[in-house]
Design brief:
Helices cover 33% and strands 15% of the residues. By secondary structure, it is an alpha/beta fold. The longest helix is centred in the middle third of the chain and has 19 residues.
Length: 482
Amino acid sequence: MTEPFTRKAKEAQRKFFNKMQRMGMAIAAHDEYWVCSRGTGKSEGLDARFIIRNVWSMPGSTGALISPSYAKAWGNTLPAIIHALAEWGYIEGIHFFVGRKAPLSANFGKPKRPPLQTAWGNCIHFWNGTVLVVLSFSQGMSANSMSLDWVIGPEAKFLDYDKIKSEVDPANRGNLQDFNQCPWHHSVLYSTDMPTLKAGRWILDKINDMNPVHINLIRNLYREMKLTERLPEQTPYTKRKYKELRHDLMLARKYQAPVKPMRGKTREYTVYYGEYDIFDNMEVVGKDYIWQMYRNVPSLIWRTAFMNERLFRVANGFYSALNDYHFYTPGDTRYMGSMGADWNRLRLAGCLADGDLDMDAPLLIGFDSNSAINTACIGQVSRHDWRHEQIDRALKHDPTLLYPVFNKYNNEFLKLAMEQTAVKVGKNGFEKDKSPEATEDSPDNPDEYKTHITDAWDTLFVGANFFMPELAYAESGIIFLH
């Protein structure tokens, strides 16, 4: 092993890990599902820990990092993971190479199942031959014909669970001749903050697959093993005890008794599910940061992204037909592919990284302006000669109406505002309840989540449908709707 891979004792650094991160290290279950708020250290304490452990435990293995799109992976997920690996002391260009195969001069190990030469652009090559392949759900069947040894899925709330079951899980198979003795062979880790879309709530159901009694067994075995390891006098008995405890711990980490017993089924992979909020990382982020987020972040974002609350839409709201299938994951673009692992260019990509941007279609911009807040919604009309009527019927997929869909990454304010917009009985019958607009802008009730922005979208929708019938044939440009 070359010098960059070794650290002398005086170079070792002491690192602090919070409650959530320590729990993950102690349990280290075969299948891990984490719903943790922003600022809890998911990248450093969960994602990086999982990757490093599997790289060391399965040299030459093939792992997969799954993402809804390459734009999401290269623009958001991978930079955070690369930084987290650096916090652990693993440096890009020394311990691993991103977006290419390591040069021969690096003397890296070879993968047991190397990617094709053209596929290295979406891989991370580690020093011992392990390869982490980046897979995009926007590329159909991207995991097809692959044999994976482990899988990681950051930002799991954006991942299509049907594709996980139909594409990823079947690919996480085989290779038992190489790593069958490793308790984490074919392990998975999915992490996210609290899902707000119904499609992302599949991860919340994983708590039903966890056996709490078995998790307590793992914790007790881990505690006894560590106490035995730290005994000042290591006798043959204590050494044998430590070895037996470690064996039992590794077995418990891999298998648990079936949560739902079935005839002939004696065991299943161990599952751990955990939920943690921002206060579980107070030692690192500090009280001042938490108070700042509480003051500056809109209330609904604070409650979901930082407090891990499960929020549901207003019953019988104004946009009652709005559902998960109205929100989509944009595809990948050649523009993104041309940038490779150039982090600076990726950060500045802007809307050019969105696969739903039609460079030949005009931009439609709807405004809503008042003394409290100015909002705008931007959209494009599909190239179909459709006639259009009312919003509710359109959301219900009436074939005679324009069918609106929303980019789930770029419409967080609009989505939550529409879900929280209620209905009231006015002088003309049922109408949108705009009474929240009369309340003062405050951290608990910010203007961004009131009906202002929904009015901007209504303007965009009505304008495109009723006042611009020729838009389906328009060439390009920007059209302002008032």
